[in-house]
Amino acid sequence: MRRFSYSRPTEVSEALAEAGGEDVRFLAGGTNLVDLMKENVERPQHLVDITRLPLDRIEEIQSGLKIGALVLNSDLAHDPKVENRYPLLSLALLNGASPQLRNSATTGGNLLQRTRCYYFYDVATACNKRDPGAGCQAIGGLTRLHAILGASPHCIATHPSDMCVAMAALDAVVHVESATGTRTIPFEDFHRLPGDTPQRDTTLEPGELVTAVELPATRFDRHYTYLKLRDRQSYAFALVSVAAAMRLEDGVMTDVRLALGGVAHKPWRDRDAEALLSGKAPERALFSKAAEAILADAQGQGANDFKIELARRAIVRGLDQAARGTPQSVTDKRIA
Amino acid sequence: MTNLTRAGFGTPLSRVDGPAKVTGQAQYAAEFQPEDMLHAHVHTARIAKGKITRIDVSRALAVEGVVDVLTHENRPKVAWFDLKYKDMTAPLRGSPFKALYDENVIFSGQPIALVVAETPEIARYASTLLDVDYKWAEFQTDLAQVLDQAFVPRIPRAGYHKPKSRGDGEQAFSDAPVQVSNRYHLSPEHHNPLEMFASTVIWEGDGHVTISDKTQGVKNSHWYICNAMGWDRDKVRILSPFVGGAFGSGLRPQYQLYLAALAAKKLERSVQVVMTRQEMFGHGYRPECYQTVSLGADREGHLKGIVNSAVTATSSIENYMETVVNWGSMVYRCPDAKLDYKIAKVDTATPCDMRAPGGATGMNLFEVAMDELAYACDIDPLELRLRNYTDREAMKDKPYTSKALHDCYERGAAKFGWDRRSHAPRSMRDGHELIGWGMATGIWEAMMAPTSARARLSADGTLEVATATADMGPGTYTMMTQIAADTTGLPVEKITAKLGDSDLPFSPVQGGSMTAASAGTAVQKACDALLEELLEAARRIEDGPLAGVDLDEVGFGDGRIYLIDDTKIGMRFEEILAAAEMDSLEATELAKPGIINMMRKARNTHSAVFVEVRVDEDVGMARVTRVVNAVAAGRIINPKTARSQILGGVVFGIGMALEEETLADHRIGRWMNHNLAEYHVPVNADVPDIDVLFVEEQDDEVNPIGVKGVGEIGVVGTAAAIANALFHATGKRVRELPITIDKLL
Fold first, then answer.
1. Reduced to 3 DSSP states, what percent helix, strand and coil does chain B have, rounded to the nearest 5?
2. What secondary structure does DSSP assign to A125-140, as a single string?
3. Catalytic: which of B288, B318, B445, B712?
4. For residue B44, how far is the Cα from the chain centroid?
5. Distance from the B638 Cα atom to the nearest Cα atom in chain A, whole angstroms
6. Mean pLDDT of A18-25
7. Which of B108, B685, B742 is closest, CB to CB, to A234?
8. Per-residue pLDDT averaged across A102-110, rounded?
9. Looking at the domain B146-189+285-447+599-744, which fold is it?
10. In CATH, what number does B32-137+194-246+250-281 get?
């Protein structure tokens, strides 16, 4: 681990005043950043510990629920307001990591989790995300964890978060602040595809701090699921995950939300596929059609070719779980 | 003495070291913190093979707090002769790895420099500042690419059992009306114990060196490091009182011991080296294996011919071998069998023993083939095993000291409810879940190795039993205590077990499931000798109540020697010592197996494993929902710790069947999933209720205490039973372990 300086401001404005430099990082739960520093992947000169900032509340606001960036994953998952209105988010959170990690990881930090690509983590290999222009050694290598949608010749990494998949489905909005002001970013625009700048995971600008995530008032408390398929029953990143939510009125699906995790550089939403489902009765054949539409451009890298078929089946099953109102349990490992 | 614990054979005594472990009193290798200790961090090679052409340490040296950077260019003088680097468990042929010896790199992740600093953080940081140029050489890490170069080593490894063919296996196979012949694959696995390898070399300043080392054998580390460093054996002491799991990775001294000693020798200061999790992938591992099993049988499933061949990986420098192809041919009656085992070189660190080495690989894959035969004959898989049952060890045609495998089948099947199984694949389901029931046979060795133990009775009536074995988790402290309690009649509270110290009487490494039989017998012998000495002392006490009595007239119990005919007459142990004017009384005994007897009869543990899996029909997620493992392992000293060993073995088997796999990028010859996020071992959610049954064998021949050992048998058979259950559930036969979700889609 490199040497770094450290500060722990108590006001957002103080934190922002220190931000912006290339070698400055905000530190919250540290569950990912500290690991990456040990691996010499992240090499900040200065850490701004933001855990004393007043950003740890879940507030009712007129447009919905505002979740402070420092709300812990475990607190968020078990908050009654979240459990009642957005059980999909609770479910996704509880599918992530382990209780110990969730007790430390924050909402903002979860948003900024970095990929689990083996090559990104190993400084003995070439990685454009870690070292722009170095090349991507994952391509043609071990690609089990890698993208089947939206990848580029420069990077085939996936975003590892579960929470973000649910937030994408729920049309969350990210609140950010910098020394020059505040702005909001629709969730779908927050994470980005790798293109030729895979070093950038998000559309955050230098010096910007995530202060909150806002969830619109629309509740999805009956027809939803988070189905995560992985290499063991717990504590593994998704090979494919599906966040699905909808409203069912008179046997017809409306306001269908569908986001995939583990398949792309960002939580993957396909509005065309959602539109395909809206206004129709829930049927497996229709779910299959939606899956085909989403995966029409999917491309495997060899070792992850199976994820295309796995994603197809997961989408159908996830939509079915949501439509039936039988969300996947976290503790009962039988697939609902 | 009313509240004291009596613990004879068969008592489920809780771990005597449990309180020390849960209160943090148990001291592990990295927790030895001598004053003024330096911390060292390893820098590892990025290339799989080649040479270091330049290594610039100046930036690291310039960091405040860095004391030195050791490389092959500036290391102190060490032994050059290969023999000086052979530890007690090293393959006989080959040249053991010598860290920082020269500019050659022979595997990716090889330590090539050691940064020594005042704090671990400084050392770790400075190690990132080394500037190294390499020249790549041609390399190969993919076993599949070198199968045609596999060979049979002229001189096998010690402890390796050469497979013995019988009759004409190939002819018998091709003449058989029912034939199954397939190739199976096991991916490489790393042990990944929770505790990282660590060594603390304490530079005593008076020419003595004390080293805390994570090892399964303090005598082995002692032998090795004294030879390699040219240190006087009498001036070096190795301590390893607690080991946080090892599974075989601690049998050979790992490189952190060598590096810490090297730095201490050069700097004449105390030095500690702790590996990182990533570095834990830079030493030995369970080698990848390709195994072809051809089984020929008559239509009733009676085996007629076996052809079993396997190739496992070794390194470029040593001939590492395992006993892989023997097991199935030992267990089942079959007139003709052709067995063939070879190794092939890849450019990795030398593989090493990992829980049930060879058996876990060979027997698990063989038992998948047996399941295939059962379906080819349309016979229930258990019935197939029963039809091929033999009481003799079939490979060498020898009797066993005991073999209660038949009872394991019966009792395991009854407990599991095997008779309710429907035979056809995909014939059992619960909604959209396919249910599969599979079974397999397990076999492992019941070894014993020469071991010395000391028993010392103190004036206060407390007893210490000691031998230089290890306790990497199985409960060796508890086992030694319990055997001493059983032998002397003393309560557990009066007994202390000591181990993990090279100053103690000789014990071999803890491995091969032989510690209970070996150290246990030695402790019993030492206690018996002590009691005889104590009686002798009591007999000599003039006018004492035991003056002149004979051994067969007395009993031992409650810390007393008493007359059998009148138990009120006797003396307490401490009274005897006081009357005889002795501060303490001590006996040291060597226990060794009878070699002739060992040759005459086979000695093995056996098991029958029954497993239920459930697989979602749509998405292919598989989970193990029930396991019954019935084990025949001689006498069980402690059913609680023995059960824990089988539980651990079964969890290992679940990992082998479904999850564990070290992924190599063969383009760069490097393990890539070198962390516990991506190298998957079972988590709690993967582990169902596990039912362990012990089928006790009264076996007076296997060793004096009739104990066979349970550290490894739990793995053997479990992975196969899971694979077979997955076939039963899905109708899909997967011949590669681990069986991950992509293989079930």
1. 30, 25, 45
2. S--TTTSTTS--SSTT
3. B712
4. 27
5. 32
6. 90
7. B685
8. 98
9. Aldehyde Oxidoreductase; domain 4 (3.30.365)
10. 3.90.1170.50
